[in-house]
């Protein structure tokens, strides 16, 4: 072989330090591979805890909006959580659009909460308090709707307005807007985007 | 040492085993090891906690044979245990109330350690293992409470798991991983059942380490001074086994009183309503043993001056601050050996610490009381001040006391303090067997 001479020289070096250099190399590379293998085999265990495919698949819900009158609300179950659908009055829409952003802990205009083509009369938000996950009150006519006329979370006292934005209390964020579509014949499909339009929430 | 005194087993079978694996010697060491002679009844709670753990494991293993961890069947399977399974009602009520008893015992055990300075050198590791056991217990109890799938089960789980969402950046992905979905649902119930079965055995392992550390550094005692010789100690068996058995009797009476006369007193009626993911009960309350920590969690609101002063301005949310404070309430116990630097262990000889200890106990009770109240004034305000005091006790009062307090003179030895006057002579006449040691 071509490199007989050099490998003999290396053997001689090994002989002199009792093979220490070679052992160190084997220990180091061996441990490195061992650590990598341990990490790689931990990943399937961890990832198995993430939402499974069937859980991810059950992701659209369809509702007929035509029987809902102005000022009424309905609750729809989507992905195991309630979604609040509220048909807002014109006064409410005007009032919400007039809110100054400086008054909001999580600043977002009312318009930003609607994608292109989604009608501002229909407010669609996920009804899970962004503090610790309780369901806020305000869907029934005799519920406490809080100081801003939207929703009130009884667990730790968060107040939301008629745009689903947090106004007062411990919750850090506005009620999230799910992806949804309202078809021409007043069908609401939660879990599907209206169009290619940009949605901020 | 007593192990040598008792020596190898005489029975030939036991000797044969012991020569191959010294398990008999180990048991003997555990039973006959020397313990300070002056322990009071506050020292009963260690062995009682061990008994409580065994009761929980035994009843739990049997209950799991009748329970179904599925959102559709869980609630009904628990009702079936209550109505149809032979003695199912007894097993479940013992398991339910046993959890409460376990926490009472462990809390008293911790306060004992705080009062008598049992966390000071050389018992730091023993203390840390204990704090770790409490953390494991809390996780186990929390997940166990979810299993019956009642309204409180579900909403307690929802509120507590949602705290993970407060972690910056990865909070939402972590919560999804914890839930195995978009909310607390069947995958969550399944994994909680698995972990609720696993963790008690992890606790058992840490308990063995806890006892190992105890037997290495030996028990503290009400005087908080080291043993100076055999005259200060007596064997664990039969002296403390007998004393512990009395405690066991009292404990079982209390447990039986709850199980047979007020089995649901410590629970919530709402948990007998099946979980409804679309309807939050008007008033969510955790189990009583979590109430003080729940108050600390809720103390952090956006408009609280302390939050705004310390944390609000660098972008932390009140939610994250509350979660961190709640965790900190336990974590601060890990640092206790460095926060309290007074070299006197027992509060008996620390007049100022003794006073502040009782104020601290009162503060913990106050935190627990507020935890059961709705999130309204004046409870929120009281809870906030009680939270401040909780942390001030550890972070300000204890370090300060260690510097300014003037402890009372310590007795020369345990035997002198216990038997009075003559010390060594009195001790040897009291137990002549130990003269040779």
What does this structure look like?
The complex is a heterodimer of chains A (201) and B (437). By secondary structure, chain A is α+β, with helices and mostly antiparallel strands. Chain A folds into 2 domains: 4-47; 55-190, Rieske Iron-sulfur Protein (3-layer Sandwich). Chain A has 4 helices and 9 strands. Chain A has a 3-stranded antiparallel sheet with strand order 1-9-8, with no helix packed on it. Chain A has a 3-stranded antiparallel sheet with strand order 2-3-4, with no helix packed on it. A 3-stranded antiparallel sheet of chain A has the order 5-6-7, with no helix packed on it. Chain A is elongated. The model of chain A is unreliable at 196-201 (pLDDT under 50). Chain B is globular, with a radius of gyration of 24 Å. A two-stranded antiparallel sheet of chain B has the order 1-2. Helix content of chain B is 64%, strand content 1%. Chain B has 2 domains: 30-279, Cytochrome Bc1 Complex, Chain C (Up-down Bundle), CATH 1.20.810; 285-421, no CATH class. Chain B is an all-alpha fold. Chain B has helices at residues 2-6, 12-20, 23-32, 45-64, 74-83, 88-115, 124-146, 151-162, 171-179, 186-217, 236-261, 291-299, 305-310, 318-334, 336-339, 351-371, 379-404, 414-419, 424-430, and strands at residues 34-36, 233-235. Chain B has 19 helices and 2 strands. At the A-B interface, loops of A face α8, α9 and α14 of B.
């Amino acid at each position: 072989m071509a490199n007989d001479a050099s490998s003999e020289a290396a053997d001689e070096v090994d002989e002199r330090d009792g093979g220490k250099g070679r052992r160190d190399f084997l220990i180091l590379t061996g441990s490195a591979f061992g650590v990598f293998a341990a990490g790689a085999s931990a990943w399937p265990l961890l990832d198995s805890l993430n939402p499974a495919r069937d859980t991810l698949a059950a992701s659209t819900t369809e509702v007929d909006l035509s029987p809902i009158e102005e000022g009424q609300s309905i609750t729809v179950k989507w992905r195991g959580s309630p979604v609040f659908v509220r048909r807002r009055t014109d006064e409410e829409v005007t009032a919400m659009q007039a809110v100054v952003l400086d008054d909001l802990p999580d600043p977002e205009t009312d318009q930003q909460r609607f994608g292109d083509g989604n009608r501002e009369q229909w407010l669609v938000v996920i009804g899970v308090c962004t503090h610790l996950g309780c369901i806020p009150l305000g869907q029934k006519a005799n519920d406490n709707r809080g100081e801003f006329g939207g929703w009130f979370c009884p667990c730790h006292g968060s107040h939301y307005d008629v745009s689903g934005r947090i106004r007062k209390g411990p919750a850090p964020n506005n009620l999230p807007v799910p992806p949804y579509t309202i078809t021409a014949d007043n069908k609401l499909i939660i879990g599907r985007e209206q169009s290619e339009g940009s949605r901020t929430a | 040492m007593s192990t040598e005194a008792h020596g190898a087993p005489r029975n030939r079978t036991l000797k044969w085993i012991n020569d191959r694996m010294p398990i008999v010697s180990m048991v003997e060491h555990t039973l006959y090891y020397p313990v300070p002679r002056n322990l009071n009844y506050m020292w009963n709670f260690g062995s009682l906690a061990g008994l409580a753990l065994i009761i929980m494991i035994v009843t739990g293993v049997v209950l799991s044979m009748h329970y179904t961890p599925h959102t559709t069947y869980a609630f009904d399977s628990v009702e079936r245990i209550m109505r149809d399974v032979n003695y199912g009602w007894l097993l479940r009520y013992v398991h339910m109330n046993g959890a409460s008893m376990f926490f009472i015992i462990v809390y008293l055990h911790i306060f004992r350690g705080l009062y008598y300075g049992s966390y000071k050198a050389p018992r730091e590791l023993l203390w840390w293992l204990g704090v770790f056991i409490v953390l494991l217990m809390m996780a186990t109890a929390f997940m166990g409470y979810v299993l019956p799938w009642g309204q409180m089960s579900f909403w307690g789980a929802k509120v507590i798991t949602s705290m993970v969402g407060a972690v910056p950046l990865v909070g939402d992905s972590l919560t999804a991983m914890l839930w195995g979905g978009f909310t607390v649902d069947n995958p969550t119930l399944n994994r909680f059942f698995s972990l609720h079965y696993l963790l008690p055995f992890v606790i058992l392992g840490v308990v063995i380490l806890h006892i190992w550390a105890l037997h290495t550094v030996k028990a503290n005692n009400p005087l908080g001074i080291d043993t100076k010789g055999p005259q200060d100690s007596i064997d664990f068996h039969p002296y403390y086994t007998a004393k512990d058995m009395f405690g066991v009797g009292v404990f079982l009476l209390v447990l039986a009183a709850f199980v047979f006369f007020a089995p649901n007193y410590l629970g919530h009626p709402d948990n007998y309503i099946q979980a409804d993911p679309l309807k939050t009960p008007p008033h969510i309350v955790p189990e009583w043993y979590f109430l003080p920590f729940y108050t600390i969690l809720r103390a952090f609101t956006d408009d609280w001056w302390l939050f705004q002063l310390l944390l609000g301005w660098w972008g932390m949310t009140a939610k994250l601050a509350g979660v961190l404070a709640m965790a900190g309430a336990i974590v601060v116990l890990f640092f206790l050996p460095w926060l309290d630097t007074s070299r006197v262990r027992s509060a008996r000889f620390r007049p100022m610490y003794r006073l502040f200890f009782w104020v601290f106990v009162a503060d913990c009770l106050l935190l627990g009381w507020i935890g059961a109240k709705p999130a309204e004034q004046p409870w929120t305000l009281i809870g906030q001040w009680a939270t401040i005091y909780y942390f001030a006790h550890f972070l300000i009062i204890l370090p300060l006391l260690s510097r300014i307090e003037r402890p009372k003179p310590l007795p020369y030895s345990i035997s002198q303090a216990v038997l009075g006057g003559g010390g060594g002579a009195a001790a040897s006449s009291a137990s002549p067997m130990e003269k040779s040691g």
